[in-house]
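Schema walk-through. Below, the input block comes first and the output block second. Nothing else is stored per chain. Lengths vary across the set, and this one has 604 residues.
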Amino acid sequence: MRATVLLEEREGRGLSRGDLSLLFRLLSFTKGQIPYLVLSLASMGLATLSTILQPYGLKLIVDRNFVPGRTEGLFINAGVFAAGVIGSMVFGYLQMVSVAALGQRTIHELRKELFEKILRLPMTFFDRTHSGWIVARLVSDVDAVNEMISSGIVSSIADVFLMASIAVVLFLLDAGLFLTLMGTLIILILFVFLLKGKLRAANREVRRATADLTRSLQETVGGLEVVRAFGREEKVLEEFRKVNARYVEGGKRLSKIYSLYFPGVEFLSHFGLALIILVGGYYFRQGSVTLGTLVAFIGYLEKFFGPVRDMTDKVSVLQTALAAAERIFSILDLPPSREFSFRQEKGGISPRGGRGEAVVEMENVTFGYDDEEVLRGLSLKVRRGERVAIVGLTGAGKSTIVNLLLSFYEPWEGEVRIFGHSLSEISPREVREKIAFVPQEPFLFEGTVVENVTGGLPLDEMKLERVLAICDILKDAESTGSVSSRQVGERGLGLSAGERQLVAIARALYRDPELLILDESAAHLDPKSEEKVSRAVRRLLAGRTAIVIAHRLATVSECDRIVVIAGGKVVEEGTHDELLRRDGLYRKLWRLQSMEEKREESER
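--- output ---
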């Protein structure tokens, strides 16, 4: 079974990971931040000690000064209380700063590792996974983990340490009152754990709905021209309403749980406090506890139940982060693309043979996407110095051939060889170093024209100027200033369709490839731009081994050989003139496109 399940679907069935294993794995990203971790833990301990001093200072003041009406030692006792207040503030500040730094640095490593992993995943992952889902993992899920580290884990540890310390002090102050409090605490703990699983599931549902909402927005904004051109506004709006409704419903379910959670914790906290006041008052009247002890006990309870109330928020943060961590690790645990299992050989692969020898060989190749075959036993050979055009109807498998040659996918059956090397035996990255690919829809990155042309290769000023001149880009730049400073927006924003194609051609020419793969653009350009692009393409193809995926047959007549694909197989091949003399598919396609071009010319 070649089909795989979408990660969203796998997540929908619920990934089962232990909370502790997820936490320990997340904490493994803090290994390089030991100084911040030590500082935060040290500050936590000192802040806890300072917090414990405050009620004890009140006990000393009440029992030793207020009740007996004496002033001896008042300043010392008040100093104990003041030291607790000041220390709590100072060390609390240090704890917050160190934890924030720890969280940011940890998330930096986590996001970097996640992004690196995404870059290494096979193309099949991107075929089956929506871009909005991936973006949500890198942004919102990583932010959720950051919130857990910054205000969750260390803070929760501090709260637990504080509560444990207070419990010990309470027991030492009066064991009877402490045991009275334990009944309420047990009920409170059971209540928290009872709703824990429901909170986790509800948070996971909200996160999934958020990803769907992001995906819907990205798709609509990215295809807004098509939406308006085909009058799909109402359809898109209806689909958005459905996605938004699922998000709202998930939020409602989460709110209902919180509506029970927060008031329940608040009630149990106040019930425990009231119980202590009642029982403590009785003990005080019996003379078994001092007034200072009762005041300190109540003060400690306020500081004890404060973290308990805050823990409801932290449980929410924790559950949200654990649901996010499941999705993050579901990506990190995926096997990388085959190319990253190869060791890069020094100097790369060396093309074999001279002119006329095969550069590309595909033998009985069968391949498809999921369980649908696209290529069925296809065989193809391209010799050195030969320019071969591949034509065929939409869906015939032309772009699939390109995907296999670039090692984006592996064939199900058969073998693909480039420069005499089987692609199953060499690193795809080494192959791509010898190949330049001009896609059908030129993709340009935000930056300058020069940055897009060099494509990360070292800058060679003379070579760059020659390439820009060949592609007529320098001429266009004369009216707008230096070409090196000309800015390109996202996906080529700010450039016309023709200019984007010229920059993509220049990028391939700057690479000076052993093999050129040109997926011809199907976009219609104005006559001037069409002529400039055609001239640049002819210069690009001159003297090179090239494969041209042709969408307009008028541009392939100059190729040495034309291969016609239909039904995933080669059905015809020959020169332009040879194929026109046959009564085959190429001749029919030629006639249809010629008639279409004449009709368009007559309408101009």
